[in-house]
């Protein structure tokens, strides 16, 4: 659902007071664009899939292994995120952790406790490309509520906060914003992008594309849609099974016990990152596995740009 235009206008004070009623966070993108007095988390992933968590505890006693699954924990949290970050939750994380049986009980509990709001974006940063992958800066799709700062207050769509109808000058302001964003929106990737990339698997171009990438994995940890994790036992006779984030950029990610590694070469890992987000996930789920937030572009230490990589592979197929 896109911005309906049927919301209400509330004062900034009323909006902040409403947000302050519980445990409230904003994402770094929201904190950067709008000054809001709440602690910032990198992305919703930080709340839904902690970087490190114990799944069960075990100990050896009386010649028996005792295993105790840890109950899922989740306290109610309100998170205000950019529309692309909301999409990362609904299109990718939910699909992975809740979309198939068995569901992940830890993720499911935290998700049930998450009240997720979208704060519309009023401009595209140089690294933003949500409109290339099916998103929009004013999308409220998947969000529990939508808000947008106006010159006279905050436009609000959702339950729980009442305000006054939009004045005609505010309607004009919204229309002008929509028109302005329409003019500056990066165009979508070609419709057949997932198929083109899939067919390009064996092409020579990948070495060239992967050139420069350090395989440091920063992009995957910062990405709101990357969800790969590792499981490791800590302790010998007493300990815990720990889940931690992992990255397809790391050489040991696919290392087999036999010592065979199907992705031992850096190029293969870069290709996997691109194909998973722009080919495999959309071919399976019907949506890109990248929401175009641009964090990986903005924060890569060597300015490696995933948009250019996709464009280059697609241009070979056209
Ligand atoms: S694209 Fe950039 S951030 Fe990602 S692994 Fe390569 S060098 Fe690191
Ligand atoms: S732009 Fe980069 S960080 Fe953002 S969703 Fe896409 S791959 Fe992940």
Write a structural description.
- The protein has 318 residues and is an alpha/beta fold.
- It has one domain.
- It is built from twelve helices and eleven strands.
- The strands form two sheets. The chain has a seven-stranded mixed beta sheet with strand order 1-9-8-7-6-2-3.
- Strand 8 and strand 9 form a beta hairpin.
- Helix 7 crosses helix 12.
- The longest helix is centred in the last third of the chain and has 20 residues.
- It is flat, with a radius of gyration of 22 Å.
- It starts with 7 loop residues before the first strand and ends with a helix.
- 32% of the residues are buried.
- The mean pLDDT is 95.
- One iron/sulfur cluster binds next to helix 9.
Overall outline? flat
Specify Rg, calculated over alpha carbons.
22 Å
The separation of the N and C termini measures 32 Å
Bound ligands, named by name, code or SMILES = iron/sulfur cluster
Mean pLDDT: 95
Q: What class would the helix/strand composition place it in? A: alpha/beta
**Uncertain regions: pLDDT < 50 for 5+ in a row?**
none
Count of runs of 4 or more consecutive helical residues: 12
Counting copies of identical and different chains, the oligomeric state is single chain
């Amino acid at each position: 659902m896109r911005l309906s235009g049927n919301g209400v206008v509330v004062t900034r004070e009323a909006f902040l007071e409403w947000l302050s009623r519980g445990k409230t966070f904003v994402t770094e993108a929201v904190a950067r664009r709008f000054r809001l007095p709440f602690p910032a988390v990198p992305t919703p992933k930080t709340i839904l899939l902690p970087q490190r968590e114990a799944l069960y505890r075990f100990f050896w006693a009386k010649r028996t292994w005792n295993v105790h699954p840890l109950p899922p924990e989740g306290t109610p949290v309100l998170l205000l995120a950019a529309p692309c970050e909301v999409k990362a939750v609904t299109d990718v994380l939910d699909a992975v952790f809740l979309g198939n049986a068995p569901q992940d009980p830890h993720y499911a509990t935290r998700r049930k406790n998450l009240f997720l709001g979208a704060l519309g974006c009023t401009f595209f940063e140089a690294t933003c490309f949500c409109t290339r992958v099916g998103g929009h800066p004013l999308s409220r799709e998947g969000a529990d509520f939508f808000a947008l700062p106006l010159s006279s207050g905050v436009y609000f769509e959702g339950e729980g906060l009442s305000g006054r109808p939009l004045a005609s000058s505010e309607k004009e302001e919204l229309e002008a914003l929509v028109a302005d964003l329409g003019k500056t929106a990066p165009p979508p990737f070609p419709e057949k992008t997932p198929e083109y990339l899939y067919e390009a698997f064996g092409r020579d171009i990948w070495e060239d594309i992967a050139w420069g990438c350090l395989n440091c994995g920063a992009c995957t940890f910062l990405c709101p849609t990357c969800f790969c994790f590792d499981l490791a036992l800590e302790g010998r006779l007493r300990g815990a099974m720990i889940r931690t984030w992992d990255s397809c950029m790391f050489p040991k990610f696919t290392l087999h016990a036999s010592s065979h590694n199907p992705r031992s070469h850096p190029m293969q890992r870069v290709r996997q990152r691109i194909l998973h987000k722009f080919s495999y996930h959309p071919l399976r789920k019907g949506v890109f596995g990248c929401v175009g937030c641009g964090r990986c572009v903005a924060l890569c230490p060597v300015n490696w740009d995933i948009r250019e990589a996709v464009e280059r592979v697609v241009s070979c197929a056209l």
